[in-house]
TrEMBL record:
Residues 190-339 form the Glycosyl transferase family domain. InterPro entries: Glyco_trans_1, Glyco_trans_4-like_N, Glycosyltransferase_grp1. Residues 24-179 form the Glycosyltransferase subfamily 4-like N-terminal domain. It comes from Proteobacteria bacterium 228. It holds the Pfam family Glyco_transf_4. GO terms for molecular function: glycosyltransferase activity. It comes from the Bacteria. This is Glycosyl transferase family 1.
């Protein structure tokens, strides 16, 4: 089975999607029978490469693109896919001209393809940059969606978003997967000042500005009873980053802006964090949440993170999106004693292992691919 993967980027500029794809296809290869050949086609964007495992046959091919970068037009990528003798194509991400490659391959060679929107059909996303999306729909996305053999949704909410925009779509729901660290490597955390981690792209959809305002506006008496630091790790738009930093000046001792971290440095930070927080307006299925859960880090998130059953099973704290809800969630967590926190940590590990380990997830992707052969 030959599988061609198409995506705008698999570097650090891609955010969590690039890292998720590299891990996904390493594990698809790992759990597949011999004879599976995977080629990842992406655009050159001058970002740093994510860490890739050795002893893999996966090919990573990059292509130049025409400006502006945001439209993702590469004649070389489109021609490469049109000539490929692959058995199937899996497109990750939409609203860029990378969508043309699998569409053209199907027109020329009748190659079946799958589309994974990665949350990009969410109502919050579709309400932004409407002119660009209208043009994309008119020129290629409508045809791309119509000709796709399968749409892949990461969760039930994304299934509904896809169905709303593409009622006739044939949809499979399969989550992202995560590597589970060895449990014996997970240290007990006893920090006098709790360390709360925000890890992700610095973008308005992550709602970091409301989070920073909420923490800055906790009254001093309440804060001093159970002090904590918000460690902000990530990259993004400088204008937005400066806006958030200005908001933090009300109580600068409550914040630590670290910048981007990857691989071993990120792992050390996760091991030493007391909680992870993400009050997003919109997500597909955030890898940062799964990473935190896999290290036994309690999650303070909301329903927009689309982790099925996480609140139903009392694995995470629901913090909503507004300032008051975020404050209440943080205060509820920092009041917990060490024994209560350890219980949440254990639940987190069991939950992610049961639902998102690669042993559970990778075979579902392989089964979906076999449907198209």
């Amino acid at each position: 089975m030959n599988i061609d993967i198409v995506t705008p980027s698999v570097t650090t500029n891609s955010g969590g999607v690039g890292s998720a794809l590299i891990s996904l296809y390493q594990n698809v290869e790992r759990f597949s029978e011999p004879g599976v050949n995977i080629t990842v086609h992406s655009l050159s964007d001058h970002g740093e490469d994510y860490k890739k495992i050795k002893n893999t046959k996966i090919q990573y091919l990059t292509y130049p693109s025409y400006p502006p970068k945001s439209i993702g037009l590469s004649k070389e990528l489109i021609h490469s896919l049109a000539k490929s003798s692959t058995n199937l194509i899996h497109l990750h991400g939409i609203w860029m001209m990378t969508s043309i490659a699998p569409l053209l391959a199907k027109k020329i060679r009748n190659t079946p393809y799958i589309i994974s929107p990665h949350g990009m059909m969410d109502p919050w996303i579709t309400s932004k940059s409407k002119i660009k999306k209208h043009l994309a729909m008119s020129f290629y996305e409508r045809s791309s969606w119509k000709n796709a053999n399968i749409f892949h949704a990461l969760n039930k909410n994304e299934y509904e978003s896809i169905k709303k925009l593409c009622p006739s779509a044939n949809i499979r729901v399969i989550p992202n997967g995560i590597n589970i660290p060895e449990y014996e490597k997970l240290n007990s955390r006893i920090n006098d000042v709790k360390q709360i981690l925000f890890l992700g792209r610095l973008h308005e959809k992550k709602n970091l500005h409301t989070l920073v305002s909420a923490i800055g506006n906790i009254d001093d008496k309440t804060y001093e009873r159970n002090p904590f630091i918000l460690n902000i790790v990530g990259w993004g738009d400088k204008k937005y980053e400066n806006f958030v930093k200005n908001l933090s000046q009300k109580s600068p001792n409550r914040f630590n802006f670290i910048g981007p971290l990857y691989n071993e440095e990120k792992e050390v930070l996760l091991k030493n964090s007391d909680a992870f927080i993400l009050p997003s307006f919109s997500e597909g299925l955030p890898m940062s949440v799964l990473e935190a859960l896999s290290y036994g880090v309690p999650n303070l998130i909301n329903k927009n993170c689309n982790i099925d059953n996480i609140f139903k099973e009392d694995v995470a704290f629901n913090i909503g999106t507004n300032e008051e809800e975020i404050q209440n969630g943080i205060i509820e967590f920092v009041k917990l004693n060490n024994s209560e926190v350890e219980k949440v940590r254990f639940k987190s590990l069991e939950f992610v292992k049961k639902n998102y380990s690669w042993e559970v997830v990778a075979p579902q992707y392989i089964s979906m691919y076999k449907e198209l052969l």
